[in-house]
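Hi everyone, sorry if this is the wrong subforum. Our group has a chain we'd like a structural model of before ordering constructs, and none of us has done structure prediction before. Sequence below.
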Amino acid sequence: MAAARPKNWVPNRPVQDSRLAWEAALPELARRSKNWWTAPLRIFGAAVPNNSANGGIPGGGSTGFAREIGQDASTGRLKKYAVPVDVVAERLAPEERKTLRAEGVLPDWFFDAVEKERRTQHKR
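Answer:
Right subforum, don't worry. Here is the predicted structure as tokens:
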């Protein structure tokens, strides 16, 4: 099995397997959806206080903008994984579904299949 169980996993909840797959895959997908350039923007945005009471730049200045760009870029890319996760979750074998429900762990092939499905849908 590939990814480790999410921290707050509640086993055997009465929700669809695709929803469970999304929740189990979310930490890895969030990591994959971040652009390389969002890290410097987040660091720059957090480094300078943007509150004039703290001696920072009044109104947030460029640091607030940098923080917004970094967050928007990663969340926008994360949305592109939603449908592929649903499609690939339908391919889970019964034993893999049991493991997902009980432990929140996805099979090794899952993330490669999600990436392939995302690229396929992007081409359409």
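For your construct planning: Confidence is low (pLDDT under 50) at residues 59-63. The helical segments are 17-33, 38-47, 61-79, 82-89, 94-103, 110-123.
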